[in-house]
Amino acid sequence: MIAIIFTQIDPVIFHIIGPIALRWYGLAYILGIIFSIWFISKLSKKSLSLIINKKIADDMIFHSAIGIIIGGRIGYVLFYDIAYYINHPIDIIKIWEGGMSFHGGFIGLLISLYLLCKKHKIVFLELTDLISCTAPIGLFFGRIANFINGELIGRTTEVPWGMIFPNVDNLVRHPSQLYEAFLEGILLFIIMSFLRKTISSEKEGTLSAYFLILYGILRSIAELFREPDQHIGFIAKYLTLGQVLCLPFILAGLLLIYKLKLCSNQTTHL
């Protein structure tokens, strides 16, 4: 079988000073945040109650970056390699060496945006609904950066589009980063855009709930093709840590839909 050989690309675009450099992964974060907030501002113009002006947009960029970076790093430390970082605590701050968790970054983003909403007196669930429609943009850029870095590789395969990542081994593997870019980025963006247009009259938080459920499902599907982290392996037979961490997302989305329906029914009966 003829496989595609991955052309190794330097993860560093250019060095700034010392260990500080602009990397593809960092560029993905920057582009993801900027494009997402631009799109949020665009969507908010169609809202009667939530307008994202320049001051709020600037604050949102700052809060988003801080929340994602701190949350993503803490999430990686706690979820993926706590034993190592207990023995090497100084390495926690070495973000330039890699190691970020989407689930941790998402939680950090929610916390930072909650504080933003308190500051600007914004309805939190109304803002998270907008973010749910734009988050796939950042996810897409992030997965493309994973592919460029040749990291988070797929499981071995015999499919004709399988790839060899020489920096890892000489086995033919699924380009799972591209699968995730499609599922969590392109497909999720299309679905959320459709839902935004079809359920716009629903209560605030509905889009947020659907995002949690859909992301959890699509990420779990992508995990079927992704090689588990070597130092963790499978949590159970064919069950990865990524799938385990997606379960709370799905449950939280279902719980939010239930609470919104309950509130809606109580309002109807008043």
User: What Rg is obtained from the alpha carbons, in whole angstroms?
Assistant: 20 Å
Strand order of the biggest β-sheet: 1-4-5
**How many discrete structural domains?**
1
Secondary-structure element order, as H and E? EEEHHHHHEEHHH
Mean pLDDT: 87
In whole angstroms, how far apart are the ends? Answer: 67 Å
Unreliable stretches, pLDDT < 50, 5 or more residues?
A: none
SSE class:
mainly alpha
Number of strands: 5
Tell me the helix content: 55-70%
Helix tally equals 8
Query: Roughly what fraction of the amino acids lie in strands?
Result: 5-15%
Major sheet:
3 strands, mixed
Shape: globular
Question: How would you describe the overall organization of this protein?
Answer:
The protein is mostly helical. The chain has helices spanning 24-44, 54-80, 82-87, 102-120, 124-149, 176-198, 206-223, 241-269, and strands spanning 4-5, 12-17, 20-23, 163-164, 172-173. The chain has one domain. It contains eight helices and five strands, in the order βββαααααββααα. It is globular and about 60 Å long.
